[in-house]
Fold each of these.
Amino acid sequence: MFKKILVPVDGSETSWRALEQAKALGEKFDGEVFVVNVIQPYNNAALLAVPLDHATIAQGNTELEKIGDKVLEVAKDKMAGFKNTVNFTIEIGHPSERIIALAKKEKCDSIVLGSRGLSGIAEFFLGSVSSKVSQYATVPVLIVK
């Protein structure tokens, strides 16, 4: 375990703490770290039937991709000095689904991710990414607060 660690980052404070934890685990166990930013694109279903033209949606998605690139640039800076292999990628889709699929595809043996701190009624209705990943992942999941 901790030979190939997947760590999703979204720019939140908890995702940066998860990245630091993944970096420490990778160094301690001589593991590789795979950093991903998942972009959830706009589409008509996600906007709850608010009609937007395709150009507006495409522009919004392009902006999300730019933000994703910037998040990965910060992640690269935070991983400076890491002596083992580190990979960076952007995925597009539903965050928990893409994280789980990427962990399988890349044959990761663990996932380290931040908790966004949803609780109570909000988590009941929405479900958090960390909850869904921990429930459906086939590898150990470390949730960092």
Note: The chain has one domain: 4-144.
Amino acid sequence: MYAADADTNRIPNIYYDIIKIIRTQATGTFEYHRSAQIKVISAESGEEICSIPINAFIEQTNKLLAGIKENKGGNGAFELPDVWSFAESVKCSSLKAKSSDKSDIRLMVHDIMSGRDDTFGFSIKSQLGSPSTLFNASGATNFIYRIDGKQLSDKAIETFNGFKKFKDKFDYLKLLGADISFYTTENETLEFNLKMVTAEMPELLAEMIKHYYQGKSHSIPELTDMVANSGIVSTKNNAVYCAHNVKEMLTNIALGMVPNTLWTGDYEATGGFIIVKEDGDVVCYHIYNRNEFKNYIFAATRFDTPSQSKHGFGKIYEENDEQRLKLNVQIRFVK
């Protein structure tokens, strides 16, 4: 499995030999060893379940890739009976890990740089379908802002709340001479987790979200540059400081941090990311190649608007004699 640069291109001289794949199913944990054939072994008993020619896996892989491409853009799930029958024959009874797991697959790999054999959990992201999410929105990811500059009338609030497009909402606020400023996160755990990166991270992310909803950009790098010039931080090089911390935040999210669970700094996906490219090639960002991983995830992600009704944001309300607004965001891969 080849390492990749920030543009998902293979790095020819950096690769990892996969010694075995470990998959936990409802029926048990199975190891897939590669030699002259692929041997499926019960992790509990050490018993060999079956031995399958490598060419059989290649044939089914090609069928699977062709089936996904043929059904790309379709609605919902589709069936590939031959591929599924083969999967069941090699004890693959489920397609994905639990949604709560950051690690989708465990691999024992040989690192040619260190000469070590280690087992790592990897998160898998595919470019074959719709862009996957990195940071999922929920009620725990609301950011609360104060309305500044002007006390809005009930009529003005009603007009603001009536706009469907956020750019129209913020253009209207500007017309009234009002603005918003970050107050707090709705969820204290999210605030703590963000501060594990740096104390300014909640405010930095909130400012990025504000610029996004004002219609300035959805690109993470572009929004980071805007925040660097917003006056939130004051260093000798704000652009470098902000970019570094946004990359750290994205890395934490990718490898273990979730909004509503206290983040201890430990990674669940201890290996990194596996990327399935549009042409079916598979590359990885191993945690050993941390710089490439951080640069990739920084360049490859963007903001997206989640459901307003589901997560309860987007409308001005009053609380503690203040006019406030909740904004929410999810982070999605560009492709």
Note: Residues 2-129 form one domain.
Amino acid sequence: MAAETVGWWGVPLAIAAGTMRGGTPFLFVSLGECLTEKSGKINLGLEGTLLTGAMSAYAISYLTGSPWLGVLMAGVSGMALGFIHAWLTQQPKVNDVAVGIAMIIFGSGIAFFLGKPFIQPSAPQLPTFDLGGWSSISSLQEALRISPLFLLGVALAPAMTWFFKSTRWGLFIRAVGDSPDAALAMGVSIKKVRMLSIIAGSFLAGIGGASLSLYYPGIWSERISTGQGLMAVALVIFARWQPMQCLYASLLFGGAQAFGPALQSVGITQGYYLFNAAPYILTLGIMILTCSPTRTISGAPGALGSGS
């Protein structure tokens, strides 16, 4: 239908729309992981947080009729998982990666178990800004239907940049992430800063889950995340731990995710699985490019991965 209406212009149009829709969860999860890693910790469990957030948002929206209350609950559920992760990773001789894998399993299990009754029911969706009302072309109207969560995420990236550079707490987080010993000498509580950073980062990841279930694709199912929580970790590395770079990288990943469906909209079905695998291929390529043993990664917090 899109091909008949706007022809090949439908491809960039669909990619642009998909960039905003598909990039929203990437944006919130990557900003959350950026905050966590700035403090010197890594949270691989955000895939489970994303799923728990998506389930919580959908369930609360269905039960209360308020999608915004669902978004808030998604963030709260993310904070709960973040607290567990933060407490565990700061125990003696506990490995961050092992805890992250355990939290993926735990968060996913919680989401699947509690979310079973909400797979079929239809929950109220988040309102959108319909910027395409001036056009009679349905595909253009759909492409210009913008979620307030996307706009919130776009505004959050420069706000986080300012926070890290210009606030006392931003300085504490960077100090703890770059040199825990120096931060300790300044009288900064390393455990407190990391605890709050992980919890706040998990809150943002939970909001990312809400964008999946209450915006796009706007359903709750057990396969809704498709590994986006894990891909966000590679995205943060690609973005060099900079919030604004996370924004650009999220849009890139969102566009890659929309590439396959955009080609399908004009009747191109050859290479269907290859096109749909574009985000995973992009993730693999980024990991290959950024894991060279011959050079260091600029911008990496000094304590990240050191176990300190």
Note: The first strand starts at residue 129 and ends at 130.
